[in-house]
């Protein structure tokens, strides 16, 4: 399933008791309208997003108990497969307006939304206008009250690319590796006062993108030199410069060819425990 959501009013992706989460409302819709005889209570997501973070290209998979006989509650194709286009419409009628299932399809053998992924893509938006943020962009754009230099931020970003231990840019946890391959990190001024940074990596540890953005913004406004982010990386000590969540959006997730999905999932499981 390809899923989009506005994270403003959610306590993040992951289901939490007593809190409104994206996973919670999606699983509720699937339980009310399962695409088969039954679905388990839990779905698997490509990347768990924090409270306030948005997504236009989140990927989810769910295991389904197949129908043993035709059911009037579930539309099926002539081949007996659930009509997932019609099911998507039903789920979206059950879901709140800040979550949408964009499409759904039967996953190939070996597919795992999280472990089969080879790359995630994020965008972070910032306004350096002296008056703040356009009111229509206030939920997905950070207001920064100082002029920003894309040249300075890109010079610093170039030193962070590649395979590194990003412990200095991750919220520490007791388990899991902080070694990641940062493949793309580039700032662009898309309008007079609007900037975007596009970030891609094989995976991200907790708060990694927001930490990268927070450090680079201090370079962009001149409070730090462009060599400082690389020094933070080398130190292994997390800096307190973490950008707010609402400027961040998960844009998409890349997967290998179908024939390589199972091998990729096995490889990833061997080197990572549940982090991101």
UniProtKB/TrEMBL annotation:
Record-listed substrate binding positions: 122
Transmembrane segments: none
EC number assigned by the record: 5.4.99.12
Pfam families per record: PseudoU_synth_1 (PF01416)
Catalytic activity: uridine(38/39/40) in tRNA = pseudouridine(38/39/40) in tRNA
Domain Pseudouridine synthase I TruA alpha/beta: 4-72, 156-256
Catalytic residue list: 50
Leader peptide range in chain numbering: none
Keyword Phosphoprotein in record: no
Keyword tags: Isomerase, tRNA processing
GO molecular function terms noted in the UniProt entry: tRNA pseudouridine(38-40) synthase activity
Family as reported in the entry's similarity comment: Belongs to the tRNA pseudouridine synthase TruA family.
Subunit structure: Homodimer.
Record's function text: Formation of pseudouridine at positions 38, 39 and 40 in the anticodon stem and loop of transfer RNAs.
Name used for this protein in its record: tRNA pseudouridine synthase A
Protein species of origin: Amycolatopsis melonis
High-level lineage: Bacteria, Bacillati, Actinomycetota, Actinomycetes, Pseudonocardiales
């Amino acid at each position: 399933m390809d899923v989009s959501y506005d994270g403003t009013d959610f306590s993040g992706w992951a289901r939490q008791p007593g809190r409104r989460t994206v996973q919670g409302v999606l699983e509720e819709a699937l339980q009310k309208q399962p695409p088969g005889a039954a679905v388990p209570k839990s779905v698997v997501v490509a990347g768990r997003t924090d409270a306030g973070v948005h997504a236009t290209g989140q990927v989810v998979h769910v295991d389904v108990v197949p129908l043993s006989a035709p059911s009037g509650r579930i539309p099926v194709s002539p081949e007996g497969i659930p009509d997932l286009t019609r099911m998507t419409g039903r789920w979206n009628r059950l879901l709140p307006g800040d979550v949408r299932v964009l499409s759904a399809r039967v996953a190939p053998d070996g597919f795992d939304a999280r472990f089969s992924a080879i790359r995630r893509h994020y965008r972070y938006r910032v306004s350096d206008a002296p008056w703040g943020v356009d009111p229509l962009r206030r939920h997905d754009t950070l207001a920064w009250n100082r002029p920003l230099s894309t040249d300075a931020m890109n010079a610093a970003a170039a030193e962070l690319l590649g395979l590194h231990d990003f412990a200095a840019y991750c919220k520490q946890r007791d388990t899991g590796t902080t070694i990641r391959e940062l493949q793309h990190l580039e700032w662009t001024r898309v309008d007079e006062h609007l900037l975007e940074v596009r970030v891609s990596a094989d995976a991200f540890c907790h708060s990694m993108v927001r930490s990268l953005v927070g450090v680079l913004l201090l370079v962009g406004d001149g409070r730090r030199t462009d060599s400082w982010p690389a020094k933070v990386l080398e130190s292994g000590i997390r800096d307190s410069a973490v950008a707010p969540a609402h400027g961040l959006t998960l844009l998409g997730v890349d997967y290998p060819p179908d024939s390589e999905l199972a091998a990729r999932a096995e490889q990833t499981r061997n080197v990572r425990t549940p982090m991101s």
